[in-house]
Amino acid sequence: MVSAATRKSLLQARVMDFLTSTAVLPLLFGCVGVFSLLKLLQWLRMKAYIRDAVVVITGATSGLGRECARVFYAAGAKLVLCGRNAKALEELTEELAASQAAKVQTHRPCSVTFDLSDPGCIVGAAAEILRCFGHVDVLINNAGVGYRGTVIDTSTDVDRRVMEINYFGPVALTKALLPSMVRRRQGHVVAISSIQGRISIPFRSAYAASKHATQAFFDCLRAELEQCDIEVTVISPGYIHTNLSLNAITASGARYGVTDKTTAEGRSPVEVAQDVLAAVGKRKKDVVLAGLAPSLAVYLRALAPSLFFRLMAARARKEQKPKHC
């Protein structure tokens, strides 16, 4: 009778004989070669898509926007940097022009200063953006503001302010630039949303509402513009180590002034910017850049909503005792 150890040795020998046979090895090497070739072609296509493209980035002077400016500039894009602080935009422009990327990059970035929360300046800002290089290939709606507070203590003026910056501003800028894209039958609109555009957590009501609205609007836009050959990408990051919570608006409208633990432990904006570059280059339609727990929460909200609601209620009780009940 053949022992178990002998059978195992015979099986291993047969597997090795199969793998080293003249028929299998070429097949394996061929598969690896085809896969490597496809990855190379994908990388070259992504690089060609970004190089010399006119890329507009809002909220470019800090956090994720600043890192996006760096990676897109290094990839060869013609940048139009947008923000409220003219001095900070000029400093970023000078930094990029003096960087290593400038040795192979022939396009000096342009900058356009405007406040995205001011509806009256959007049309003029869009016209100024178009004057920089004559058209826009990629619009990255990145500017935004955070929020911390209870629903019951937050005035509707604060809700409107958050919605104006995070939703109405990007929508207005997108609408102002869309006609030029449609005429050329070429363009790519990117919305930097949030995982909180998929799920809502306590004490982030205004922020989550603005990001849910963002997700819905750009999903509709994608469907409507497909026939015009316009790409639309919605990117939903999790926590990023930026000043978003530090500069967040509170229920009273004041500055929050605290870097939350979740934000401090968030992903590096450099890494997220690289992911944004890849998503744009690959023309992905919808991307979630969050950890395992937030990503699972999205599915939990859809598949087991009652459990999700209980978990959020428990989180609310843990973070702050309600003083109005």
From TrEMBL:
UniProt xrefs under InterPro entries = KR_dom, NAD(P)-bd_dom_sf, Sc_DH/Rdtase_CS, SDR_fam
Q: What is this protein called?
A: Dehydrogenase/reductase SDR family member 7B
| Positions of the Ketoreductase domain | 53-243
Q: Which residues cross the membrane?
A: 18-41, 287-309
What Gene3D superfamilies does this protein map onto?
NAD(P)-binding Rossmann-like Domain
Q: Which GO terms describe its biological process?
A: lipid metabolic process
Q: Tell me what gene encodes this.
A: DHRS7B
GO molecular function per UniProt: oxidoreductase activity, acting on the CH-OH group of donors, NAD or NADP as acceptor
Could you tell me what this protein does? Putative oxidoreductase.
Which family would the database say this protein is a member of? Belongs to the short-chain dehydrogenases/reductases (SDR) family.
Stretches of the chain forming a coiled coil according to its record:
none
Which cellular component appears as one GO term in the record? cytoplasm
UniProt keywords (A-Z) are: Membrane, NAD, NADP, Oxidoreductase, Transmembrane, Transmembrane helix
User: What would be one Pfam family of this protein?
Assistant: adh_short
